[in-house]
């Protein structure tokens, strides 16, 4: 079930629980389709190259289709494009998780995925969020980890999203907190 503004409030809460995911690992142009730019993270944000590499990785999965374990199979999906506002919402959440030293979909102020994207002025029709904590050897490794998790895979393969923003806040060692926001703007 997509996270949609047309759902009643009790269904929105259930949607967030079902459509958001998290993974823990041990190891500003505002228009859609614009060139990715880094965001001002608290510590070691993603580089432009990492962002570009992640976009290639997620769109490769979408171009080929995927089976998301018990959640079913997804055929070929349209590629996602970058949106700076969506990325800023992702960066704000990565920073918050870093400061809390805790991976969570709930912000330190009680905010949810919808609150964070609304704060950026992004008018959305549907949104999804993946979070991760830990050390990833590359953004391709991160994408692979999310694709290996049924709920995260569904978010990445969903047909109700068209734009993305990804961000990280990391320690000098590389261990950190990652947030992927996927969205479709309101018509």
Query: Structural class from helices and strands?
Result: alpha/beta
Largest sheet: 6 strands, mixed
Residue fraction in strands: 15-25%
Number of strands: 8
Question: What average pLDDT do the residues reach?
Answer: 83
End-to-end CA span: 19 Å
Q: What gyration radius follows from the Cα positions, in whole Å?
A: 15 Å
Estimated helix fraction: 25-40%
Explain the overall architecture:
Helix content is 36%, strand content 22%. It has 187 residues and is α/β, with parallel strands linked by helices. Strands 1, 2, 5, 6, 7 and 8 form a six-stranded mixed beta sheet that branches. The protein has a two-stranded antiparallel sheet with strand order 3-4.
Question: What key attributes describe this structure?
Answer:
two-stranded antiparallel ribbon, 6 helices, 6-stranded mixed sheet, 187 residues, alpha/beta, 8 strands
């Amino acid at each position: 079930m997509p996270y949609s503004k047309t759902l009643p409030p009790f269904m929105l809460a259930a949607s967030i629980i079902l459509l958001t995911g998290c993974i823990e690992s041990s190891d500003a142009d505002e228009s859609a389709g614009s060139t990715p730019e880094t965001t001002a993270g608290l510590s070691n944000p993603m580089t432009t190259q990492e962002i570009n590499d992640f976009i290639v990785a997620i769109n490769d999965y979408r171009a080929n289709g995927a089976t998301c374990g018990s959640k079913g199979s997804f055929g070929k999906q349209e590629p996602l494009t970058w949106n700076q506002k969506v990325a800023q919402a992702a960066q704000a959440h990565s920073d918050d998780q870093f400061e809390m030293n805790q991976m969570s979909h709930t912000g330190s102020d009680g905010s949810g995925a919808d609150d964070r994207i609304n704060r950026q002025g992004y008018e959305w029709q549907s949104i999804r969020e993946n979070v991760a904590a830990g050390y990833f050897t590359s953004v391709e490794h991160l994408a692979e980890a999310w694709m290996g998790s049924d709920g995260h895979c569904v978010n990445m393969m969903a047909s109700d999203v068209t734009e993305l923003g990804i961000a990280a806040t990391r320690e000098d060692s590389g261990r950190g907190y990652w947030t992927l926001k996927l969205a479709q703007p309101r018509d």
